[in-house]
Structure prediction request, 470 residues.
Amino acid sequence: MKVLVSLCVFVPLLALATAEDEAVLDSILRDRSHIEETLRLAADEKAGDYAAALQRLRKIYHNSIRPMEQAYKYNELRQHEISDGEITSKPMVLFLGPWSVGKSSMINYLLGLLDTPYQLYTGAEPTTSEFTVIMHGEKIRTVEGIVMAADSSRSFSPLEKFGQNFLEKLVGIEMPHSLLERVTFVDTPGIIENRKQQERGYPFNDVCQWFIDRADLIFVVFDPTKLDVGLELEMLFRQLKGRESQIRIILNKADSLATQDLMRVYGALFWSLAPLINVTEPPRVYVSSFWPYDYAPDTSRELFKREEISLLEDLNQVIENRLENKIAFIRQHGIRVRIHALLVDRYVQTFKEKMSFFSDPELVFKEIVDDPDKFYIFKSILAKTNVSKFDLPNRDAYRDFFGINPISSFKQLSAQCSYIGGCLLEKIERAITHELPSLLGSINSGKNPALSSCEVTGCGEKPKNRYRRN
Prediction:
């Protein structure tokens, strides 16, 4: 009887305690309304125009750029093949940094995943051992890495080249979320300086480079207790060279320090990173505490809130410019393909000019590849075309390229023409100078970016061979 009475008293008390705990928890959670307002998640988008522009971009790539890629085996030089999934993919936001600095908590906060079955696990110890891709889907589900790599409609199929050990460390999470309709988040394993590279079981730096090359925005996250720079972090910043415009440095957990200590930590962070970021204008640094709970008392709440809104505006800018960035990326890729084709054409032309009846083909071409400046291979491209010397690829790369691909397997550009299809060089130049800028202009002016008949039929123009002698 005494036990029954005790239970009768204990159960209401337990229910009361639970209700009080929930009330206390709600009171310490931070208001998230500014996230939806800044990112304009409630705004309607013209999905039809966006899809039409992507379709036109895909058409230009397949008709004007890809044939040149295949003819001169560009993918074997740069190891970067553009798939339809990459053209139609959403902007990618990549989170990098040491372990337990708040990368996963930041994603949970932005997506409102706290106390949901699919919140990313966080803790004081190293917790994220996988590359986690958070993307939009019709329902909440987990996608294994081998499934992501096997699906050609996604942009992750090239990750198969890193092996099965890596695919076991790759996981995707799909969920119906308005922000994920416009952007994809990638959470990465934390950097642990006392761990050897081979202990991961896969080429960690190569995988990071793959994501870095495709990221539209890169958040490098630190916290006040992990500002030391080791070999792995130093290697990471070497991989970020040339991507400074996409990098944002985040000093997280800033409300754990007093204002005076925070100023010292801010200076120490710049002192640690200065040797790694050798640019005139350093990346933007955001100082705040990015997680769902309220700021600690007696800290710079207003400053942290403004910093957070500035970061959200930065993210929103990437989302709103995603189509323009995609067009610019394809155009930049087309310029590189064109330069590669011009260089291969020049190698082929020089080889044919130096060959005679008694010449040894291998010795002749070895002389050309070993010393291209002697034969003005690269200088001739600069003299005859509007190519910047800073866009020219490494000379040594062509020694390896022609080691795999014999010079006899390539035709000159003058022979890459057909009556129906036209000349490959003219098509890629038209895409670079006219079609892609025109598509970009139609988006900025609000015109309908649907496919034009000229892109399919060529407007009845007869293909011309610019290399044919009259």
In short: Confidence is low (pLDDT under 50) at residues 1-26, 451-470. DSSP finds 18 helices and ten strands in the chain.
